[in-house]
Amino acid sequence: MTHHDAGLTRRAALKGVAGLVIGFHLPCAAHGQSSAATSFAQNAFIRIGTDDLVTVLIKHIEFGQGPFTGLTTLVAEELDADWAQMRAEHAPSNPALYKNFILGMQGTGGSSAIANSYDQMRKAGATARAMLVQAAANLWKVAPLEIVIERGVLRHAATMREGRFGQFAEAAARLPLPEDAPVKQPASFRLIGREGAVKKLDVPDKTDGKAQFTIDNYEPGMLTVVVARPPRFGSKVASFDAAAARSIPGVVDIKQVPTGIAVYAEAMWPALKGREALRITWDDTAAEKRSSEQMIEEYRALARKPGITAAVRGDVEAVLARAGNVIEAEFVFPYLAHAPMEPLDGFLQWDGQRARARFGCQLQTGDHNMIAAVLGLPFERVEIETMLAGGSFGRRGQADMHLAAELAQAAKAIGPGRPVKLMWTREDDIGGGYYRPLVLHRLRGAVNGGTIVAWADRIVGQSILKGTPFESIIKDGIDPYSVEGASDIPYDISDFRCELHTTEAAVPVLSWRSVGHTHTGYAVECFVDELLQAAGKDPVAGRLEILGKSPRAAAALRAVAALAGWSGPGPVGKRARGVAIVEAFGTWVAEIAEVSVDDGGSPRVHKVWCAVDCGVAVNPDVIRAQMEGGIGFGLGHVLFAEVTIEAGRPLQGNFDTYRSLRIDEMPEVEVVIVPSAEQPTGVGEPGVPPIGPAVANAMAALGLARPRRLPMVRGTG
Questions:
Q1: What are 3-47's pLDDT values in tens digits?
Q2: 654: exposed, middle or buried (C-beta count within 10 Å: 0-12, 13-18, 19+)?
Q3: Separation of alpha carbons 430 and 335, rounded Å
Q4: Per-residue pLDDT tens for 54-71?
Q5: In whole angstroms, what separates CA 169 from the centre of its chain?
Q6: Exposed end of the chain (fewer CB within 10 Å): N or C?
Q7: Three-state SS string across 7-65, please?
């Protein structure tokens, strides 16, 4: 029995590990719920070896956003461990043990790692601490309350005895689990929230090359697989000729799989050459044939018609009808690729009876189920080892498990006994769909006596959830991801309506870093700025006047204004400032951008000030890094990035045509973390949405039009 087994017992685990293993049920409420609302418990695991090392099994994938460090910090805090003795590794795929309470499955997404695991991992650490202390007390024949732990050393002052964790690990493992080990009070924190208290655990191995990613996988007899997929979304294989491909040295076999034609080779180069040599006839009967421009025109027409109501209060149409001056704005958002540094890839070994997959797995439960289904295996005969991944931004969180399915299909097509490594190229990845949806907003508003009195937002776009295992989240025709941040704006406006038109297209869509907030944040924050300008209000002071129901938003806005020394938007000289504030996944982020415009009308962002309220700040350095990274990621996309569809085909394929932010274009960023005692919330995504509207509002302060269609600088690929 291993820690992969759902029925793992502490006693069985101890047979294979020398030391203390914490593998017990820890009831933990889902975010925003009471404990009573949570009908299941989850196992957390800590291994304390006789070598004094503490290893924390992390149920969330580490792809640069920091859960290895953050969750290990929680354990180390409660253990009073020395950070040098802490280690982290991915937990195996096992939903019975490692379910994410927020997602309802084992997986990572929605900036949920810390939010989901904060209480749970602290409780695990506190339990391990209590057992070590009791073991030492038994050995020294003293009261447990007389023992203290400092940086991994247990001490009894009266007898001048001391010892490290490893000395007591085996004895502690023989003790009964304490019923309710107390966790620390925040005033006693030594690591949580402390500047510079810990270093990121994954950085050293990534720096010196020891870190292993999917591309590093190699097994004797392994075949590299690339798939020729249809150039037009929705097409299927009609027929193919593989004779020329089979003649290329190193090509082992060619097989048709549901997603296209798979080329199996002894290495990547012959696989690519074999794919180039294929002659494929595509059936375009069900293919997408429209262009982005045609879709936008269709969306524009839909936006003139009433949609399904997502939220309403008052009678916005009556107020708009009476208003002397109705302000209208249309915002158009393109399809966007995730474009992480590591394209999709996966390794799978299948012998006909069991399967072992190794890859950067973001949604373990879904991927596990998919591999088992494709290979016709029971769940318990499939093993997934989650590896480090070179970014994701949502790309690996495919709701229909596309990567896992294709990986299993490639293994099944070649037959058992040959390990396969499926590789996507950069062009495959950017041109492969699963984009942030193309979306259009039509907003109407009115101002009376310096007050915003009406707000109507009609949204048009594809559903991310429709057709996925999560489709049940859609209620009354409303995909909550389509309207989040637009149906629940933080501003006090008495007459309000948000509507939605959900469209259909063969272009597959997916969550993209900060999901619906990527477009709603821009539309809402640009439009409120425009209405405040019409009301003659300062962008900061005007927002504060209508944030009465959102005190945390107001506090973050005041914090960023103080950080930037806000005295108005300007312009001052050739620069102006714009502001925006967006809540995503329970975290409030306010940003101020200082912008100039070159002779060609393109914005240049010089500095960004950022205030973030994410509840208890577990790792301040990680939080700042995520804000800085989110700002750079978001800025590059609002300035330059789009996937253009022409006759159902994506035109972009690599960074030469899918433009990203360059190093000399990254602004200086200054971040302040708003002190908070609230439960911690996520930071991997919320830094992205405010940067676009902050830049757009600065451009308006310079006397230019707010960009209505993104990217701001088009045709730069």
A1: 333 333 333 333 334 577 765 444 443 333 333 222 222 335 899
A2: middle
A3: 11
A4: 999 999 999 999 999 999
A5: 36
A6: N
A7: CCCHHHHHHHCCEEEEEEEECCCCCCCCHHHCCCCEEEEEEEECCCCEEEEECCCCCCC
